[in-house]
Amino acid sequence: MRARSGNRAVANRQIARAHELLGLRKELPTARRAMEIAQARSLDQQSLEILREMQRNGTLIPAYAGDLKDLPEFIARCERELASLR
Predict the structure, then answer these.
(1) pLDDT score for 20
(2) Please, is 66 exposed, middle or buried when counting C-beta atoms within 10 Å of its C-beta (0-12, 13-18, 19+)?
(3) What CA dihedral angle connects 24, 28, 34 and 37, to 10 degrees?
(4) What are phi and psi of 22, to 5 degrees?
(5) DSSP 3-state helix, strand, coil percentages of the chain (rounded to 5)?
(6) Torsion over CA of 25, 76, 11 and 36, rounded to 10 degrees?
(7) What domain count does the chain have?
């Protein structure tokens, strides 16, 4: 179970980065950019929740500890970008 949850968190993060990169493309319409950034934020939030649950359960492995620390900043970055698009 631990590996599956961790793998899901990692997959969400990677997909979130792809959405974030799309959202940063200035040539896309603003609405599309906002949608991509919002999706990135949602996936990052899901990853953070998974990793926090693993931490509470004592199943968080060291390889994911850095992600637990970094994800709040990724989420905040998406929120700042969304605010700039409004």
Answers:
(1) 96
(2) exposed
(3) -40
(4) -65, -40
(5) 85, 0, 15
(6) -30
(7) 1
User: Half-sphere exposure of residue 15, counting CA atoms within 13 Å on the CB side?
Assistant: 14
Residue 31's domain comprises: 2-85
> What is the arithmetic mean of pLDDT over 10-27?
95
Arithmetic mean of pLDDT, 30-50: 97
6-21: b or e for each residue (b if 16 or more CB lie within 10 Å)?
beebbebbeebeebbe
Q: Cα dihedral angle (56, 57, 63, 66), rounded to 10 degrees?
A: -10
Question: Across the chain, what does the average pLDDT equal?
Answer: 93
Tell whether the model's pLDDT for residue 57 goes beyond 60.
yes
